[in-house]
Design brief:
Length: 494
């Protein structure tokens, strides 16, 4: 029987230590998001240039189209299951991911997963901003052909990005910051619009290609199929793992949004609509649209922006590219702006507000030159595998602690106290069992990624980096937390 000890009616009580609390991290007074808001959140997360390009990159694995489609659906089914698990503790307590992590890692130790997740969000924020800026480049060149020469990085470029690319990137960088600065209610309204908008464009784009090519031109054998029969199974499983890795970051901090849900039932219904059902339609669109680019343009195009750029009508290009830009901004804000805002604020709540945390992420995204992390299928897979290796053990520890060790019991007030008598003080504010598990899990998961080209079998293992880290977290943490020298008493709920 699960139980959560709720805080008083006020969001921030006098007993809450200011070193752990601000208005953004405290439990919510009102939880108002319904089924559609969660559904729209996932539509914004799925319907982006990054999601399309990632799905399209699976064709490079030598799989048939139906195999790619099956891998996409199986991958999102795993994401759906885990999102429901990670949503429950935050929805019940009304606190974001870094705060609920204090249960497993300790009131001070939670800064470790918060910083790791925040840095990953910085990387994704930069990647998604870059992908959106590429769509904006298409619009600008179509409207002002004279700008085309400035889109060549070899002639007019800096750090691997063209002058035009820098301009588009910085414009979108500012626009996203402006939306974020207005707060969560404005973000909610923005994502309610973004997901449906890009669906309309994708259906129109697919219809346009279908009108050009005809039904008979659809050939789902998009590439040379090198894996058939049972030999395709491990490759498909690797593709499933890549899908999970793509969603691993927003999946980990889904509690940042689940905390706003008016009920856990609403969260589950929104997840059902937004993940397996919505993603199935999205996957079909990706496969069919990519298939139609072959007869229409004579080559396989897996980037929707490049597909839109081939259309003869200027108005259609502008509307299509702008919609993809807006949609990608939507996912970027919800998945990679909100999360580090909470994560970095958690490190020092008195000095770093939610908005301040978001600005740290925005500045960091410029430093990492994200266009170099997502510029071809091989680099995409390497990036996903590396990020997955870091996120997997954090997810495993969180789930194992809440469901297996803690039995779904959380004392909310103790999340905000530095008293040694607090339930989550552990050893000077840190839980060594969680920290050791995370270090071991991340090391084991990233090893295949770094040695994929040198040691036999590591290339295949690298595809499962998230699963390796997560499995170690799920298995090792309960053992370390309940037995041996790192064993800690599980506090009883008052």
């Amino acid at each position: 029987m699960s139980e959560t000890v709720a805080p008083p009616a006020e969001a921030v009580t006098p007993a809450y230590d200011p070193r752990l609390t601000n208005a953004d991290l405290a439990p919510l007074e009102k939880q108002t998001w319904g089924v559609y808001n969660i559904f729209a959140f996932w539509m914004s997360d799925v319907h982006s240039v990054g999601g399309y390009v990632t799905a399209g990159s699976l064709f490079a694995l030598g799989l048939a189209s139906w195999q790619v489609l099956l891998a996409l659906v199986l991958g999102i089914a795993v994401v759906h299951l885990f999102c429901n698990l990670v949503a429950k503790p935050s929805q019940r307590t009304g606190v974001p991911y870094p705060v609920i992590s204090r249960v497993a890692f300790g009131v001070l130790g939670a800064n470790i997963p918060a910083v790791i997740r925040g840095l990953i969000a910085v990387a994704w924020y930069g990647i998604q901003t870059y992908l959106a800026s590429a769509a904006l480049d298409v619009v600008l060149i179509k409207l002002f052909p004279g700008l085309a020469r400035y889109a060549v990085a070899a002639d007019y470029g800096f750090l691997g990005l063209s002058a035009l690319g820098w301009g588009s990137y910085l414009v979108l960088w500012v626009l996203q910051a402006a939306v974020f600065w207005r707060g969560m209610e404005s973000i909610r309204k923005f994502i309610d619009f973004c997901g449906p908008a890009v669906y309309v464009v994708m259906f129109v784009l697919c219809g346009y290609l279908l009108a050009r090519a005809g039904w008979g031109a659809i050939d789902l054998n998009l590439t040379t199929v090198t894996h058939t029969g049972w030999s395709a199974v491990p490759v498909m499983l690797g593709a499933v793992a890549l899908v999970v890795s793509y969603f691993s970051a927003p999946m980990l901090n889904f509690g940042d949004f689940a905390r706003y849900g008016r009920s856990f039932t609403a969260i589950k219904r929104g997840n059902l609509l937004g993940l397996p059902l919505n993603f199935l339609v999205f996957s079909l669109l990706v496969v069919v649209t990519a298939a139609l680019t072959v007869p229409v343009y004579g080559e396989l195009i897996t980037d929707p922006v490049q597909t839109v750029a081939r259309i003869d009508n200027t108005t259609a290009i502008v509307l299509g590219a702008l919609t993809f830009t807006v949609a990608t901004i939507g996912i970027n804000i919800v998945a990679n702006f909100v999360s580090p805002a909470f994560d970095f604020s958690n490190v020092n709540p008195r000095k770093i507000s939610w908005r301040g945390g978001g600005m740290i992420a925005a500045v960091g995204s410029l430093v990492i030159t994200p266009w170099n992390l997502y510029n071809n299928p091989q680099v995409i897979h390497y990036t996903l595998e590396t990020l997955g290796a870091c996120v997997g053990p954090l997810f495993g520890v969180l789930i194992a602690d809440y469901y297996r060790v803690r039995r779904q019991r959380v004392v909310v007030d103790d999340l905000f106290t530095l008293s040694p008598r607090g339930s989550y003080w552990y050893r000077r504010g840190y839980n060594p069992a969680a920290i050791v598990t995370t270090l071991v899990g991340a090391t084991a998961a990233v090893f295949p990624v770094l040695t994929a080209g040198d040691i036999t079998g590591m290339y295949t293992a690298a595809q499962y980096s998230w699963f390796i880290g997560c499995a170690i977290g799920l298995i090792a943490y309960p053992i370390l937390a309940t037995r041996g020298p790192l064993r800690l008493p599980v506090p009883e709920t008052p």
